[in-house]
Amino acid sequence: MNLMKKWFLEKRWSGRLIDSLLAIFIGIIGGLGAILFRFFIKFFQNLFYQNTNDFITFCHTVPLYLKILIPALGGLIAGPLVYFAAKETKGHGVPEIMEALLLRSGRIRPRLTFMQMLISAICIGSGGSVGREGPIVMIGSAAGSTIGQLLKAPQERLRTLVGCGAAAGIAATFNAPIGGVLFAVEILLNDFRLEKFSPIILASVTATTISRHYYGNFPALEVPSYQLLHASEFIFYAILGILCGLVALLFIEVLYKSEDFFDNLPLPGYIKPLFGGLFMGLILIFFPHVFGVGYGTVNLALEGDLALKLLFLLIFIKIIATSITLGSGESGGVFAPSLFIGAMTGGTFGYLVHTLFPQTTAGSGAYALVGMGALVGAATHGPITAILIIFELTGNYLIILPLMVSCIISTFITTFLKDGSIYTLKLRRKGLSLKRGWEQTILESFQVKDIMKTDFDTVSETATIDEIIETLGKSHHSYLIVTNAHGELTGILSFHDVREVFLKRKERGEIKAKDIATKKVVSVTANDNLLTARHKLGSLGISQLPVVDEKNPKKVLGMISLKDIISFHEKELLKRI
Asked: Alpha helices, DSSP H only, in 110-154?
């Protein structure tokens, strides 16, 4: 291992061959990880229920009290594991990967590769209403990050390896290599640069090959044949896009309200999943369809075998069930629930449309299929990923045009009405954003205190012009801090302010520092990020800002300059190349 590590370091990661070999290796881990994770889910489901089939096929044999107690037991086991061993596994995982990419250049703790697998498998196997895609993305991303950290990859290369792991996980799960690639670059990395694609494609193809070798070349869902019966159907698919956009907004809102509700409960964090499991058990008594991933119910909707009333109710039941499971602190993905909710929304709409126009519209299953893509695109703000995954599930080119219409419209609805996807909203609540591009996230990732200069020059507010000029002549800074008798900040002045005195030919002996200083001082605190400081400097058109104490704005801690920010930014960019 040491010889291999030394060889990689000597090569300085410059060769595309090395990138390709690493991508293939990560793809192997991602494919095997997806297989192992599904085995874990079946293991725990068999442990809890003595049956590994879809829950709706045997739910009538499970005693009423076990339907309540087993999900609660799953929460009781998973809660302490999340709280004490791996807090990053709480929730749906992808926002935590995005945060690692933004703030730590893709550094993810190695233990998450196994802990995410264990905790999510317990949650899904016991009945938690979540998906397996989010955990698999975390597993693949953590594996890619671990390999990069072991080999001391440059920071930007480490981000690519994380993307390779995520693409491998999605590709192996859905048997969709193109969808895996697009998920990584469109949703996770938010970066379409050409150099990202080659290694991510290799990882995705490798993982898909391994998955197909084990499970066969079969789609993840039983997708019916699709046919566009009449051009007028595009109108209905457009309306479906609007509906899916609105339902996606409801899903996002309820999910985060649920998280807030459980976060505010005056209970230890490791106990909350127990209560989430109890609520989930009560739901399973009446609606076993929302158990776990729920692909069995999705298949019924695609085949048109669910009644209209049940299709409609399951939209909201799934939203509530998933929100309770994740909000209480358990672990799982939101991708599969989005597919489920989209299938029920599309199925409901398609049922009504086909009843009204039986000769010119397809059955409810076709609309359920398009609804899946539309809701995923709207919830994740990743319409291209949604379109290609559904296309790969069907293998039918005729689905592309209706998918494009519905997905683009649904995504427009959510982006217009809400700033942030189901993944990025958690980051926005922490003051982070992916929209500015990867270069500017560097400035968001560092604080003013990381580069500020603690040496600065001051003058008393009673200082004369001569004293000010003398201080400016000795100073290395463009600005002087003006203070009162207590050393508190009262203003700031520059050579430009002194120059104005001479231009106006005022009596110099009568003018003090407080007379010419700018009294409304714009400042930053040591804990502000560098992007905030840069924006303030740019909007004011000045070169330096005072850094003040957060609790006492009159106390100056240092100075920060635009020149220092730009220099620091360039150095950090070079580290990531």
From this structure: 112-126, 133-150
Least confident of 17-21, 62-66, 68-72, 289-293: 17-21
Residues 123 and 440: their CA atoms lie apart, in Å, by 37
Cα distance between residue 460 and residue 444, in whole Å: 35
Domains of the chain: 2-215 (1.10.3080.10), 233-439 (1.10.3080.10), 444-575 (3.10.580.10)
Name beta bridge partners: 447. Answer: 529
Each residue of 134-184: pLDDT tens digit? 788 888 888 888 888 888 777 777 888 888 888 898 888 888 888 888 888
CA angle 370–375–378, rounded 5-degree value? 125
Q: How far apart are CA 348 and CA 313, in angstroms?
A: 9
3-state secondary structure 214-233: HHCCCCCCCCCCCCCCCCCH
Distance, CA of 512 to CA of 519 (rounded, Å): 13
- φ/ψ of residue 269, rounded to 5: -60, -30
- Cβ neighbours of residue 49 closer than 8 Å, sequence gap 6 or more: 55, 58, 62, 66, 70
* Residue 454, amino acid: T
Tokens 């982070």: give the residue.
432
DSSP alpha helix (H) spans, 419-560:
424-429, 438-445, 465-474, 495-503, 513-516, 530-540
3-class DSSP string for 186-208: HHHCCCCCHHHHHHHHHHHHHHH
Query: Whose CA is closest to 335, among 379, 367, 304, 303?
Result: 379
Q: Cα torsion at 396, 189, 93, 219 (round to 10°)? A: 20
In angstroms, what is the C-alpha Rg of the chain? 29
Question: Whole-number mean pLDDT of the chain?
Answer: 84
Distances (CA, A) of 123 to 155, 331, 408: 33, 7, 33
- The helix (run of H) or strand (run of E) holding residue 159 is helix 155-174
**Is residue 145 a contact partner of residue 137, using CB atoms and an 8 Å limit?**
no
| Residues 198-253 pLDDT 10s | 888 899 999 999 988 888 776 666 677 777 777 888 999 999 999 999 999 999 99
Residue bearing tokens 């107690």: 69
What pLDDT, in 10s, does the model give residues 333-389? 898 899 999 999 999 999 999 999 988 888 888 899 999 999 999 999 889 888 988
432 or 123, which is more confident?
123
The tokens 């520059």 sit on which residue? 494
Determine if the pTM surpasses 0.90: no
Could you tell me the two tokens for 495? 């050579």
pLDDT number for residue 15: 56
H-helix or E-strand spanning residue 525? strand 524-525
SS3 content of the chain, % helix, strand, coil (to 5): 70, 5, 25
Structure tokens at 464: 């004369």
